[in-house]
Amino acid sequence: MAASGTAAPRCLVQYIVVRSDLVHTLSWSLGAVISQACHAATAAIHLNYNDPDTQEYLAELDSMHKVVLQALDQASLSSLSETLTEKGVAHKLWIEQPENVPTCLALKPYPKDTVHPLLHKFKLFK
């Protein structure tokens, strides 16, 4: 419970969308895929470090919320990135080098209701 006169922190979420075909079709190891998600999340935070939502998110290190969703393949991931760009949603599309393969993307931290409608068709990563 927040102390009297102080507001409770908002629930900010960092969404990460990972291609599920990397594991299920292309046989990437789970560790390799997790590292892709880590790269994207770190890059999104770095690129948006001075954003007020990012600063608030980082101020609550023990209360971070991340949601990892799955895109079926490269086409669906790229389409999502284009939609997010069109809507002005800050994100980082991670492209693994030197292979030049888009593997995942991460949004900067947002209040859940702000971006959730854009991600409703993506299910939790399995």
From TrEMBL:
Coiled coil: none annotated. Transmembrane segments: none annotated. It catalyses: an N-acyl-L-alpha-aminoacyl-tRNA + H2O = an N-acyl-L-amino acid + a tRNA + H(+). Keywords: Hydrolase. It holds the Pfam family PTH2. CDD domains: PTH2_like (cd02429). GO terms for molecular function: peptidyl-tRNA hydrolase activity. InterPro entries: Pep_tRNA_hydro_II_dom_sf (IPR023476), PTH2 (IPR002833), PTRHD1 (IPR042237). Its EC number is 3.1.1.29. The keyword Nucleotide-binding does not apply. The keyword Hydrolase applies. This is peptidyl-tRNA hydrolase. It comes from Salmo trutta. The gene is PTRHD1.
